[in-house]
Amino acid sequence: MVKRYFSIAFFALFFTMPTATLANCNCARLQDTFAEYLTVDVSRYQGGLTPRAEATSHIDAKVIVSEDVFILWDEARYDTPHYEVICHRVPQEEGEVPLASERWGNFYGFGIDREVIKLLYVASSRGEGPQYRFEIVGDELWAFLDGWFYRMERISHD
After folding, report:
1. Average pLDDT over residues 83-100
2. Which residues contact 61 (CB under 8 A, 6 or more apart)?
3. Keywords on this record (predicted)?
4. Pairing of strands 62-65, 35-44
C-alpha cells in the first residue's frame, strides 16, 4: 500500500512540473544510463553549506545506477529504486529567467551549448531519503548539490 502511494506521489510530481519545456526529443533510454560511474571533478558553482573538504572527498568515489540498486558515494543506497528520464528543451529567448526548478547546468554556465537537457531522477522505492536529479551528458552524469557541481564519468556498463 505504501509502495503504491509513493509511486503515485512520485509520478504526480512530474505531472505538476511546467510542461511548456518538456521536449519531444530522442531522450536517453533509462537502460542506457545503467552503469558504474566515477566522480572525477568537483567545483563550486554557488554558495552552500557543504565544506570544500567534504565536497572534494567524493572525487574517485563511485556511483552505481542499475535496475536493482542505486548507490551514491557509499552515502546513499536505494534497493529497487524508482527512476525517471525526462528531456527538456533549452529556452532560446534572450533574457528569460527560468523557474528555480528549471535551472539546470546551463543556467550556471555548464554545458551551455546544449539544445536539450536530459535529466535522470532517482528516488527510493520505500520513500526514504532524498530524491536525486542528475543531468545526462554523453557518458557522464552531472549533479548540482548544495552549491557544488559533481561530474561523474561512466567506467562500466551494467
Report:
1. 78
2. 38, 39, 73, 74
3. Signal
4. antiparallel
Residues above pLDDT 70, as percent of the chain: 73
Handedness of CA 10, 16, 21, 24 (dihedral sign): positive
Residues for the chain: how many in total?
A: 158
- Who's near 34: CB < 8 A, 6+ residues apart? 65, 66, 67, 157, 158
Phi, psi of 61, deg, nearest 5: -90, 145
Q: Detail the DSSP E strand segments found in 11-147.
A: 35-44, 62-65, 69-72, 76-79, 82-89, 116-123, 132-137, 140-145
Model confidence band, residue 21 (pLDDT cutoffs 50, 70, 90): very low
- The neighbouring-strand residues paired with 119 are 86, 135
Q: Given the C-alpha cell 526514504, which residue does it identify?
A: 128
Long-range Cβ contact pairs of 130-139 (< 8 A, separation 24 or more): 130/76, 131/10, 132/70, 132/72, 132/76, 135/104, 135/105, 135/111, 136/28, 136/33, 136/85, 137/105, 137/111
Q: pLDDT tens digits, residue range 94-150?
A: 777 767 666 667 666 667 787 888 999 999 999 888 999 999 999 999 999 998 999
Where along the chain do its domains lie? 2-157
